[in-house]
Amino acid sequence: MNNLKEDEISEVSIITPLHNAEAYISQTIGSVLHQTYQKWELIIVDDVSEDDSVQIVENFSKNDARIKLIRLRENSGAAVARNTAIETAKGRYIAFLDSDDVWLPEKLERQLTFMQENNYPFSFSAYERIDENGRSLGTVGVPKKVNYKQMLKTSVIGCLTAMYDTSHFGKVYMPLIRKRQDYGLWLKLLKQTDFAHGLQTSLGKYRIRRDSISANKMNTATYNWRLYRQVEKLSFLASCYYFSHYAVRGLLRTKFPTFAKKLGVMQ
Fold first, then answer.
1. Average pLDDT score over residue span 200-210
2. Is residue 262 within a helix (H) or strand (E), and if so which, with residue range?
3. What is the reported pLDDT for 245?
4. Among 21, 121, 198, 238, who pairs with 234 as Cys (CB 3.0-4.6 Å)?
C-alpha cells in the first residue's frame, strides 16, 4: 500500500448521526481511533437519543478533542443530523460513518491515496455486511465507476464508504427527506462530476439491524419514488423507467443474492 503523508493533505471530517446506538457506538468510534491515517475529526450529532449513547460519546470526547459531540434539541432525522455535522466540518474531505457501522483500520489511508493519486473528487468502496452480533453476511462488491444516470437506476454506494472532496464541490448537503437522503446526496454530487470511482477493496462493515429504518422495503421504495419525483424532478415516465430498474434489483437482492453481489447491487 502507498504511504500517505499527513502534511500533504487536509484533514477528513467524519460525519456520524447518532440515535439510540449505545450497543454499537463504542465500536464505531474505536474503528476511527484505530485508523492508520490520523488527521481527522469525528463529528457526532445526537438526534435526541433516549439511551446511554450520549454518555458513551462524552467519555470518548473527554480523552480526544478530535471527537466532537453536537446535540439536537428535537428529533429531526438523519438528514438534519448529517447536515448539521457537514456545516460544522473543517476538513477538506467529508466522509460518512453511521453509529452502528465500523471501518477497517486502513480505510482512510487507502481511500485518500486512491483519490489523491487519481485526482478523484468522489469515491466509495466495497464493504462487508454484518448482522447485529458482528457475524459476516458477505461482501458487497462495487463497480469501478458510476455516473448520474447509472446511479438513478440503483444506489451502489454504501454510505459508510462514501467520501467527497470539498475543494472540488464545496460543501454539499443531503436533501431533507426522512429516508434515502444519502442516495440524494450521491445524485447531487454526480451532477457536478462525471463519475464516482469505486475502490474494489472492502474497507468497512455495514451492520444489518432488525429495527433499521431501511428494513421496511415498501416504505423505502416509496421514498425512492419521492426522490425521483420531488428531489430530482424527473418526469413521471422517467421516474417509472428508473424505478423499474430499482425494483428489479430489489428482486435480485432477495431471490438471487449471489448474482446481486457480483453486480454490486446489494444495498
1. 92
2. helix 257-263
3. 87
4. 238
Characterize the bridge pairing of strands 122-130 and 163-165: antiparallel
Q: For residue 61, what is its C-alpha cell?
A: 470526547
Query: Which residues have C-beta within 8 Å of that of residue 102, sequence separation ≥ 6?
Result: 27, 28, 30, 31, 204, 205, 207
Residues 134-177 pLDDT 10s: 899 999 999 999 999 999 998 999 999 999 999 999 999 999 98
pLDDT tens sequence across 35-49: 999 999 999 999 999
pLDDT at residue 8 in the model: 47
Q: Going by DSSP bridges, is the β-strand pair 102-103/93-96 parallel, antiparallel, or unpaired?
A: unpaired
Cα(204)–Cα(31) distance, integer angstroms: 9
Q: DSSP assignment, residue 10?
A: P
Q: Which residue, among 200, 124, 125, 198, has the nearest Cα to 164 in the 3D structure?
A: 124
d(CA 42, CA 32): 8
pTM above 0.85, yes or no: yes
**DSSP letter string, 184-245:** HHHHHHHTSSS-EEEEEEEEEEEEP-TT-TT--HHHHHHHHHHIIIIIS---HHHHHHHHHH
Distance CA 232, CA 235 (A): 9
160-178 as b/e: b if 16+ CB within 10 A: bbbbbbbeeeeebbbbebe
End-to-end CA distance of the chain: 28
Please report the sign of the dihedral spanned by the C-alpha atoms of residue 99, residue 147, residue 109, residue 42: negative
Confidence (pLDDT) at 211: 64
Least confidently predicted of 101-105, 128-132, 162-166, 217-221: 217-221
